[in-house]
Each structure stands twice: as structure tokens, then as C-alpha cells.
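User: Show me a protein chain along with its predicted structure.
Assistant: Here is one chain, sequence first, then C-alpha cells.
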Amino acid sequence: MTENLRPSGAHSTDQDPTSYPYASTSYPYDGTAHSGTAHAAAAGGYPPPPPYAPTNRRKAKRPVALLAAVAIAAGVIGGGTATLVGQFSGQNSAATGSGGAVNGTTVSQSSKGTVAGVAEAVSPAIVEIGAASSAGKSTGSGVVITEDGEIVTNNHVISGAQQIQVTLSTGRTYTADVVGTDPDKDLALIKLRNASGLKTATLGDSSKVKVGEQVVAIGSPEGLTGTVTSGIVSALDRDVTVARDDSDSSGQGQGQGRQGGGQEWPFEFGGQQFNGDTGEETTTYKALQTDASLNPGNSGGALINMNGEIIGINSAMYSPSSSSAGSGSSAGSVGLGFAIPVNTLKADLDTLRAGNGS
């Protein structure tokens, strides 16, 4: 199409004098008059042609034709048509440019659907939580949901803690305070002191999750900050029973990855107990099941879909219970992990922010 465009001043073939059967003389670009009789004689009896437009009118048509050609070509190539049209018509095309930075998780179009893309986008919103109490220290994970430092985690990660230290993906550390807890749902909300401008995660919709969907888990297993694993959602609505609170002196359930000789976070699944005794105070919730590897320290971290949205808060893993309390760490992930659906968290956020639990 663009091969029909000529430099300024060139004449199209439909205006070439030789192409008209009734024209044998040059066109009156000089403005001189030609009689109809002469034209008729030269054309063998054809009526005289209509008067030609002045030169300036012919030139005025070229930008319109050029604009149409460019617009069509841009439409064939795909994208950018509005910007090109704006430039040729003298309009301001700034409105078509990209907007400012968007708060929350953003997975670029080219990386959407890839583990690497999800990890790059969401990792800055996942933190490591260190909780210290008289019973020892524990390591867990958390998800940043506001720029000023609200972080969601599991109740069992921070239950009974006297001091909470949070480490961002950048390595910067903050002291955190407990805002609210909900032992029945194993959820907690903590807040960093004097934090601002943090990267935040986007909470998705767990009601739309289907078995077989690919997911990514990010957390701090065994204190290894920012560890990424991937897998699929292997089941929905699994009943998982966990210890409701950590009020005893033994310090059981002080979070996964305990560094003080305590047992790891206990839970029940399928009528069996894992990682220690759940005790008398327990609660049961419906969980997403995943084969993405979860290990001690992943508790409170994120289970993420391939659009970069949080669909669950990782809370428990299937692992054979220790034969004795002093036998050391039990085995790690065997492909059965559990996460609290994010819709459960969203329904509980106002309660947690008010400092209450269900």
C-alpha cells in the first residue's frame, strides 16, 4: 500500500495527461485557459474535461490519503494505531501512554503464566517472620497487604511471641506488633512499626480455584528467605485440624522451623496426627491441598495462582510425626501441603483489624 505514496509534487497516474482519451495537451497548471473546442477536437469529439482544481487543493488531499494508508498499515501490524493517528492529526497522544505504577502484584504480559514471572512479581510482598518467646524461637512467613506494613500470617507462627522481627525480601528488618488473631481460623494480622511504601500482594478469589490449576508457593522454609516452589492444586475443601492456640509452657506450635528443641507445628489430617500432639484445644478448617513443596517455615506464606494473585495462606504440611520429641526435625514435604483459602482471610480481615477473633 505504501508503494503508491509519492514524494510531494509528484502526480498520480489518474492525473497524467496521457491517460485521458480526450486530452492531448498538458494540463493548465499555469492557470491559462483552454477552450472547450480545442479539447473536443483533440479528443475526437469528447466533451471538455471539468476544470481542474488549483495546485493547493490537490496538495491538501495528500496528507489525508497518507493518514489513511498509515492507519490501515498500523491496523494490520497491530497496536499503536491511535498513537500514530494522533501524531499525524496533530493531537496529543500522551493519553495513550502507559499509566503510573500500580500498587499490588503485577505480572507482566510476557511473563504471565510462568513461575518465573509470578516469583518476580510477588516475592517482594512475602516476608520472613521471626518470633521469639520464653520457649524459644521460630521462623515463619507472611504476606504484605498494605503499603504501611499490614502483614497476614498464621496464628500459630506468632502465638505466644514476646517479640516479632520481620525481614523483607530486600533484607531490611522491622519490629512488628500483633494487631489481631483468630485462632479458630489460624490467622493473624501484624503491623510493622514505621513502615511505608512497601510492595503489596493482590488477594485473589479462592472460590474460582479448580483442581489441577498450577500454583506457586513462596516462603521461608527453614529460614531460607524467598524460597519458591511450584505445583498444582491437588484437592479442595480438605478438613485440616490444628492446635487452636499456644498457651501451654511447652511452646508446641510456636511456628514451623523451631530453633530451640521444640516440636514443629502439629496438625491432623485424615484421622492421623502429624508433627506432634495437637492437644485438646483444636480447630478445623477447609483447606486447599497442593503438591507444591511446603516445609517448616512456609507457614503464613503465599499460595499464588499464575496471574500473581494470592489464593491461599500456606498453613500445614503432611509429614510423618517424630517418634520422640527429641529426635530432631521430622521429614520434609512429601507432596501434600495445605493452605487456608484467601476468601476465608478476606472475610476475616475486618475482625483482625479490630483486634478481635472469632
